[in-house]
Amino acid sequence: MMVTTHVAAGLLLAVPVAAVAPHLTLPAAVGAMLGGVLPDLDLFVGVHRKTLHFPIYYSIVGVGAAAIAVVAPGPLTVGVALFLLAAGLHSASDWLGAGEELRPWERTSDQAVYLHPWRRWVRPRYLVRYDGAPEDLLLTAVLAVPAALTFDGWLRALVVGGVLLAAAYSLVRKRVPDWIGL
After folding, report:
1. What is the mean pLDDT of the chain?
2. Is the per-residue pLDDT at 88 higher than 90?
3. CA torsion angle for 95, 98, 100, 101 (degrees, to 10)?
4. pTM for the whole structure
5. Cα dist. 158→14, 33, 58, 133, 153 in Å?
């Protein structure tokens, strides 16, 4: 899935925070966006979907951080909780997509996400055929709607901008491997 899809999913976690604690909207949204992005930084460092993808660890620690945020709500506790939960959601949801290969529509990889506790990869499910596929763009748009309706100002503009970026990427996705010479 596209990073914009993961960010939109993370922001979906921030919507209830905005509803019950509007003064914590910004740390919730920022934490969720950063958590939605972080796992994909392993595209540049280490092994993609292994080095920074921790579906189990992020989720477990995220639930603990969320419990702390409920008991002691504040910008730091809420931001950290949403960061960890969004990173866990990102890491786990990559299992529903394609493998980690450059041309995922060819289905040459059986490695979706690495599960560190069991030291093994899980196979891709292809519910989203590849990052930038039409269904990925649709998922980004649908997941972004609650955030676009809830947030205002620059946060709303960022959500809408993310959907537009996703649309542009989807239009050119299958050409990317040729453009980078692979």
Report:
1. 96
2. yes
3. 170
4. 0.96
5. 14, 10, 25, 21, 9
DSSP 11: H
**Helices 75-93 and 55-71: angle between axes, nearest 10 degrees:** 150
Residue that has been written with the tokens 């890491």 in this structure: 91
Cα–Cα–Cα angle for 6, 9, 12, rounded to 5 degrees: 150
181 Rama sector, left if φ>0, alpha if ψ -120 to 50, beta otherwise: left
Phi-psi region of 131 (alpha: psi -120 to 50; beta: other; left: phi over 0): beta
Mean pLDDT score, 77-88: 98
In which residue are the tokens 């934490």 written?
31
> What DSSP character marks residue 118?
G
Phi, psi of 121 (to 5 degrees): -90, 150
Can you read off the two tokens belonging to residue 156?
């709303």
pLDDT single digits (tens) 123-174: 999 999 999 999 999 999 999 999 999 999 999 999 999 999 999 999 999 9
